């Protein structure tokens, strides 16, 4: 009986995390990256960021065109590509997945490196344990670096032994704080805290 709340927690968080952000700050935004993103299934799970950015898979990325990604249950590693430059109005950008049980997340943020364009790797997901770069909220939330190059593609690799259905939201701190408060209050209500 005590396991029932643990079994329904991912569904509750998914619902609460999909609620649109409400904020009074006109500069705040919450943008569903899935609408502008493309994805590539990697059945081997062995592709690296160098393989992906070398151009060999350029024509194989498919448009997502939905607010959510529905990769389902699979052993694939799934690569997501989108350009944050489409969303330059966001200050103090955060990237969050509104599903808790994702095994391995690798966010490759485009930055200007010492020798030219480069990527900063941010790791998350339950498989990374204490080596995670996400904030450790109910679901993975990444603070994107100030040095992010919004004119280049961001790549995200997701691999999970669990279902990989989620929304990927690019937002600012104000909009996320409003959503975070709603989620915490929602969970407190559901679990009677």
Strands of the widest sheet, in order across it, are 3-2-5-10-7-8
> What's the tally of helices?
3
Rg measurement, Å = 17 Å
Number-wise, the strands total 11
Topology order in helix (H) and strand (E) letters: HEEHEEEEEEEEEH
Mean pLDDT: 81
Distance, first to last CA: 17 Å
**Strand-residue proportion:** 25-35%
Largest sheet: 6 strands, antiparallel
What is the 3D shape?
globular
**Which class do the helix and strand fractions yield?**
alpha+beta
Relative helix content = 10-25%
Provide the low-confidence segments as ranges.
1-28
Structure description:
With 193 residues, the chain is an alpha+beta fold. It has helices at 4-17, 49-53, 173-191; strands at residues 30-32, 38-42, 62-63, 68-70, 77-82, 93-97, 104-113, 116-124, 141-143, 154-159, 165-172. A 6-stranded antiparallel β-sheet has the order 3-2-5-10-7-8, with no helix packed on it. Strands 1, 4, 6, 9 and 11 form a 5-stranded antiparallel β-sheet that branches. Helix 1 packs antiparallel against helix 3 (173-191). 33% of the residues are buried. Mean pLDDT is 81; it is low at 1-28.
Set down the secondary structure blueprint:
Blueprint: H1 4-17, E1 30-32, E2 38-42, H2 49-53, E3 62-63, E4 68-70, E5 77-82, E6 93-97, E7 104-113, E8 116-124, E9 141-143, E10 154-159, E11 165-172, H3 173-191
Antiparallel strand pairs: 1-11, 2-3, 2-5, 4-11, 5-10, 6-9, 6-11, 7-8, 7-10
Helix pairs in contact: 1-3
